[in-house]
Write a structure and sequence with these properties.
It is a single chain. This protein is mainly α. It has one domain. It is about 70% helix and about 0% strand. The protein contains seven helices and no strands.
C-alpha cells in the first residue's frame, strides 16, 4: 500500500485516476493476470512448462481478464494501478503510463485494432 500511496500524485497528474478515492474503485487485478502470463512464459523458456501447459496459463489469464473487465481502457488502468502498487515510484511508472497511452491511441496498436472480447484460442 505504501508503494501505491507514493505513486498517487503521478497517477492523478497523468490522468490514470482523478483522485485518491478512485483507487478504491479500480481493480489491480489486470497486473496479476499479466503476471500469470509473464511467469508462465518464463517457466516455459526455462523448460519448466510444456507448450500445452504454458498455453493453459495464458488462456487462464485471458479468461480472468475477460470476465472482470469490459474494455481495453479499464484493463489498462487496472494494470497501471497494479504495477504502481507492486513497484512504487522507483519502477518506471511514467514509462508504463506512456505504453498504456500508446496502446489506447496508436492506430497500429493491437488494442485499437482488436476488439476486447476477441479470443484466439490455440487448439491442441
Amino acid at each position: 500500500m505504501e508503494h501505491l500511496k507514493e505513486t498517487i500524485p503521478v497517477l492523478i497528474a497523468k490522468g490514470i485516476i482523478n483522485s485518491e478515492e478512485d483507487v478504491v474503485h479500480i481493480s489491480i487485478n489486470a497486473w496479476d493476470y499479466g503476471r500469470i502470463v509473464f511467469l508462465a512464459r518464463l517457466c516455459y523458456e526455462a523448460g519448466y512448462l510444456t507448450e500445452r501447459e504454458v498455453w493453459h496459463f495464458i488462456h487462464t489469464g485471458d479468461e480472468l481478464a475477460q470476465q472482470q473487465f469490459n474494455d481495453w481502457a479499464t484493463f489498462g488502468k487496472s494494470y497501471v494501478l497494479g504495477r504502481a502498487m507492486w513497484g512504487g515510484s522507483a519502477r518506471g511508472n511514467d514509462e508504463t503510463i506512456e505504453i498504456y497511452r500508446y496502446l489506447m491511441t496508436d492506430p497500429q496498436s493491437p488494442w485499437v485494432k482488436l476488439p476486447w472480447r476477441q479470443h484466439a484460442k490455440v487448439k491442441f
